[in-house]
Structures are given as C-alpha cells and as structure tokens.
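Researcher: Sequence recovery benchmark, item below. Answer with residues only.
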C-alpha cells in the first residue's frame, strides 16, 4: 500500500498573509472542528489499546510515551499530569522525548533521527514485559519512535502508536496502532495544529480511562489528587462535603488529618458504621 502523508499536503487555504485576524480565526476554528470527528472514527482502536494498558498496569506495569518535537512534548505533558490528578507515583506514566528534557523547551537538532536512542532511553527505566510503550508521531515516520517500538516488539513489550497518517510506518510497527486522520493543516505541514490537537485528545482518553479503571476516580471526582496548592485543598474539602454531610470546618480537619479525600471519606464512613 502506498503511504501518503496527508498531514504534509497543501493547505486548502491560500494567501494566509492577506487574511484579516477574524478570517484567520474563523478558518482555523473550522479546521479544528473536524478533529473530534476524526478521533471518533478511531475509538475502536483506542479502546483495544486501553484494555491492554489496564491489564498490564493491574499487575504493576507502567505506561510509557515516546515521541519527538510536539508529539514528545504532548506525551510528557500527559504523563506529568497523572500524579497530581490521580495520585499515582511519578514513575507510573512516563513521557520520554527525543533529545531529553532539554527538548521540552528547545528543539534538539537531529534527535528524532536517531533510531537507536529511544530504546536506550527506555532501558534507563528498566523497561520490561509488564510495561506498555506508545509511540507518538503525527507523521508516523519518526525514526526515534519507530526504532523504539521495534526494539520493544523484539522484547515482548506491548506497543501502541498515535499517528495522523493512514498506514504509516509507525502504525505498521505498533501492535496496537491508532490512526487519527485529520488531513492537511491550516498552515501547510504545521502538525502542531490539528494533528497536535488530535494527539492530545487521544492521550486524554488513554490516561483518564485507564486511571478510572484502576479506581483513581470515585463517582466523578479526583479523590486521589495531590493537594499541592490552596485551590486544590479547597476543592478537596468541597469533595468531602459532597460525599458526607459535614461542614467546611470539619471537612478541613478531616483533610488535614488524613491527607486525601479518599482516606478522609473512608474514615468518616467507617466511623459511622460502627
């Protein structure tokens, strides 16, 4: 099958520099509206991958994201938000970007072209068969990501991918590929736009659904979130008040004493049942 990078095809809009700001915003928004529909078409494949992740994490496995450039940064963002949101350890969901942490803020030249480095980066985390590795690349051709998944496959580690081109080399490498076909970008080739949005939406689905399945959400609340600032402490107190009939003052005392919404609520309920 011939592989065509639809993300690299010419924008359907011409002479962007002659457009007013209102015209630019309207056309960008028009293109952005197509992204959730593209994600919807990929839901069956997203579901299959998430089921694999849940099964592995239930036996102590971890979830890794590997990527370069925008794709790598999106993986790092999603991974870094799991500990404060769901109360998991920082090494439960791990984002790795080509070029290392320096590349989060500043592009590292040719880092994405090293086909061997991703596996070295994963080995630093003692990657094993209980883990799952998802390669993220809008183009589906990034050597760093493809090389990493190839080595994972050789070592019986479950692999998934998120790409925005159909039947890309990355998709053909991953055991559980996700293709979100968003088409040409508003600015030709600028895959930080629709492709980046699509990847972010899929990552949200993967991490959130996995954490819910692992019991990190109760009802619809982040009962295991880290209480790292005044806003979150206040939110935690109000969660306690929603779950059990106590005042703000008592909720505050419970949260201070037990350190988490879940523990505070569980203690209160257990005391009432005695």
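Model:
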């Amino acid at each position: 099958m011939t592989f065509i990078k639809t993300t690299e095809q010419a924008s359907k809009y011409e002479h962007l520099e002659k457009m007013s700001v209102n015209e630019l915003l309207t056309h960008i928004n028009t293109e952005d509206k197509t992204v959730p529909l593209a994600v919807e078409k990929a839901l069956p494949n997203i579901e299959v991958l998430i089921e694999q992740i849940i099964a592995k994490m239930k036996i102590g496995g971890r979830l890794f994201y590997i990527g370069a450039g925008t794709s790598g940064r999106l993986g790092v963002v999603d991974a870094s938000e799991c500990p404060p949101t769901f109360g998991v350890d920082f090494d439960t969901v791990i984002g790795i970007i080509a070029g290392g942490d320096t590349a989060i803020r500043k592009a590292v030249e040719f880092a994405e072209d090293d086909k061997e480095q991703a596996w070295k980066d994963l080995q630093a985390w003692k990657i094993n068969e209980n883990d799952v590795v998802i390669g993220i690349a809008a183009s589906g051709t990034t050597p760093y990501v493809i090389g990493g998944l190839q080595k994972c496959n050789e070592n019986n580690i479950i692999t998934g991918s998120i790409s925005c081109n159909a039947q890309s080399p990355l998709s053909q490498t991953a055991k559980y590929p996700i293709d979100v076909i968003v088409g040409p970008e508003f600015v030709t080739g600028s895959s930080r736009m629709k492709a980046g949005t699509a990847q972010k939406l899929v990552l949200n689905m993967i991490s959130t659904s996995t954490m819910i399945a692992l019991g990190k959400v109760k009802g619809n609340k982040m009962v295991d979130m880290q209480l790292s600032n005044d806003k979150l402490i206040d939110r935690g107190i109000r969660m306690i008040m929603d779950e059990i009939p106590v005042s703000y003052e008592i909720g505050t005392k419970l949260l201070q004493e037990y350190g988490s919404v879940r523990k505070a609520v569980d203690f209160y309920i257990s005391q009432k049942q005695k």
